[in-house]
Amino acid sequence: LFPFIEYRGRKLFVEDVDVQAIAKRIGTPVYVYSKAAFSYWFNEFDSAFNDVEHLTAFAVKSCSNIAILRLLAEMGAGADTVSAGEIFRAINAGIAPEKIVFAGVGKRKDEMEYALSHGILMFNVESRQELETLNKVAEKLRKRARIAIRVNPDVDPKTHPYISTGLRTSKFGIDYDEAFDVYMKAKEMEWVEPIGIHFHIGSQILDVSPFEEASAKVADLVKALRDKGLDIEYFDAGGGLGINYHPEENPPSSSSLAERIVPFVKELDCKLILEPGRRISGNSGFLLTEVLYIKRKEGKIFYIVDAAMNDCMRPSLYDAYHHIVPAEKKENIEIVDVVGPVCETGDILAKERELGKCEQGDILAVLSAGAYGFSMSSNYNSRVRPAEILVSGSKFEVIRERETFGSLIEGEKIV
Ligand code: LLP
């Protein structure tokens, strides 16, 4: 199906582990990640850029477990973060602060202080007001803030509107035409030091040409800035490379992405930063769930499973496709809706899907859920969030315990 996630005979394996053994020992729902898959996808990405000095800063938001971040740190990854909480996770996992970049349209002062005091590589600044605030915070701490301006290159990444970020109409970054001026302001400020330039055009991008368009525009800006004496050392091209959500689709290779970006970086002689999230984590994990009940009515079959929209939000939120397969192959295909127990009609994991006929108690795998799966989960309906498991070879370990009722009310008070 996907690297390290495949059938052996009739049974679904992740590396050398039968997924039913995980469901049995740990219970369901449960997120399962493969160490070998993480390493495969990290290398597929990172090695594509070997022609230039580069940092692969993993987008923590896609999969934030510190065991996963530690794995990636060991492979040489840095971190792309969007909150002090993510910086905390990255540092906790052993990612060096000099490999951490911090983006986000709404950084609070306390988050800036946190990032500054830990000495992160750079802030990706998204507005004039943020720049001024950062200058003040840095002055207070007597620590210069290294920055890049997040430039909005106004290119269409041709992806889902909710995850397009590089269009003029989006809230992200500073408009291309305005960016030069903002850099000039930054140059005059005592406590910020412009060292880079940043853009991120969107997510789940399957056509790499917009990356070239954006790189070309941003490279022109770098030249103009250098002419004014600004030393732009880092070229941060963001994340966004898409994956296949169906085993039979072929997404672009990371090398084909590199071909669009690397020539500009070479010409500028910059250091390249990349911020892939989904590309590395998406197909390195999946969600296991048990079929609780089956409802067969006229013209409609529902598999009611024990995972729901709170555990895996993408299908409800974006109408996203996640391939679903049984832990043990079935005969007799039927067309079903796979739905969760949450009290919302939108609590759907898959709609009108062809699946082998299941019975109560069967285990299903919701594939490609390594990115924006657990990290977007919530406690809606007071459901405890699933455990997370890391598989390596024939072994697996819990990297996050299933939550308990205690965790549900932690911090709450009856007054
Ligand atoms: N860098 C920045 C500044 C970002 O905002 C993002 C993602 C990334 C990097 C990583 O993008 P990736 O390589 O994973 O595409 N929840 C949505 C995706 C939201 C992406 C937000 N930004 C989903 O489930 O599809």
From TrEMBL:
Residues that, per the record, bind substrate: R278, R314, Y318, E344, Y372
Cofactors: pyridoxal 5'-phosphate
The entry's keywords: Amino-acid biosynthesis, Decarboxylase, Lyase, Lysine biosynthesis, Pyridoxal phosphate
Residues that hold pyridoxal 5'-phosphate according to the record: G240, E275, P276, G277, R278, Y372
Catalyses which reaction(s): meso-2,6-diaminopimelate + H(+) = L-lysine + CO2
Cross-referenced PROSITE patterns: ODR_DC_2_1, ODR_DC_2_2
The EC number(s) this enzyme carries: 4.1.1.20
List of catalytic residues: C343
Domain Orn/DAP/Arg decarboxylase 2 C-terminal: 31-370
An individual GO BP term: lysine biosynthetic process via diaminopimelate
A Gene Ontology molecular function term of the record: pyridoxal phosphate binding
Residues that bear N6-(pyridoxal phosphate)lysine: K61
Pathway info: Amino-acid biosynthesis; L-lysine biosynthesis via DAP pathway; L-lysine from DL-2,6-diaminopimelate: step 1/1
Family note: Belongs to the Orn/Lys/Arg decarboxylase class-II family. LysA subfamily.
Known role: Specifically catalyzes the decarboxylation of meso-diaminopimelate (meso-DAP) to L-lysine.
Quaternary state and interactors: Homodimer.
Protein name: Diaminopimelate decarboxylase
Species assigned in the record: Desulfurobacterium indicum
Lineage: Bacteria, Pseudomonadati, Aquificota, Aquificia, Desulfurobacteriales
Gene: lysA
